[in-house]
Amino acid sequence: MPGPLTDGAAEQPLVSVIVPNYNYAASLELCLRAIQEQTYPHIELLMVDDGSTDNSVEIARSLGVTVVRTPRNLGVAGARNLGIAESAGEICFFVDSDVALAPDAVATAVRLLRENPETGAVCGIHDPEPLIRDSLVEEYRGLQYHYWSVSSAGHISFLFPASCAIRRTVLEEIGPFNERLRNTEEVDYGHRLTQRHPLLLSPEIRSRHDHDAELVPLLRKLFRRGHARVPLYAERRKFARGFETSSRAGGSLAALASLALLPSAALLGWYGLIAAALALVVSLAADAGMYRFVARRRGLLFTGYFTAVHWLVNVAIAAGVVAGAVHWLCSPAFRRLYGPAVPEPAR
Description:
By secondary structure, this protein is of the alpha/beta class. Helices cover 51% and strands 14% of the residues.
């Protein structure tokens, strides 16, 4: 079991805040300044640069932040592993470089770990407002991601490493992030961690995230993530606990079905249109609470835009899953993607 944080110096253990970064100069200063302004006093801050070609390193050094550089672009899993190896804290707090923590985030994470000694890690939730507001797509993503997260608060099996504190004893027990995984390392790590320890998602740990601002890159990313999750979910034979629920998976598949059924209208007339409409209704009903949440916050006009974008997101996710299922059937190597072999941490 994880060791309790109690008595004496352990009341305020050293927290190593690890910021993996690859070409996020646009938000990096906001991220690092938010960490430097934390109310918690015992923080070691490291920015792990994963081969950036922008001025990220210069920004970090201008703020007096310790910079560790990977020997080549390893992906976020490799950057986190290097940060773990180079840090000394009893707790490692991972913060993505496009995230700005609320001032009490680290203090709150330490308190939650102390109050829940059996818990291996605690993760935070992004506010619905994006860190940098520069597109309607970003407004959509902030609301969608917040709702999916806050509706999953509690014990989960899906790691949220953009804002997450993990006891070092747990990191040593579970092992490094799997560097073979470029899109789903957090799903894999959450699965491995929760085989041994509870994982808590708490709205008390707050932050703001600079979400994707363009629709096509967002859809492409979600397609890749849906594709890469198939071998893990096929192996587990169940969905993650929280966030990616079976209901939401069904909603995504229904959205794809509504698109696929549209051509049938040419052959079946109104019957084809009715079938497509019914599939769309099923997709909307799968996350009805989210649409009510958006309508209360932003009104009906924005909710109409939100609904259209989320339909496209659901189609992209479901298409990725379908492509992943075909890949899984045809490729033994893909079926072994989440195998037991995990690379050593980068040093």
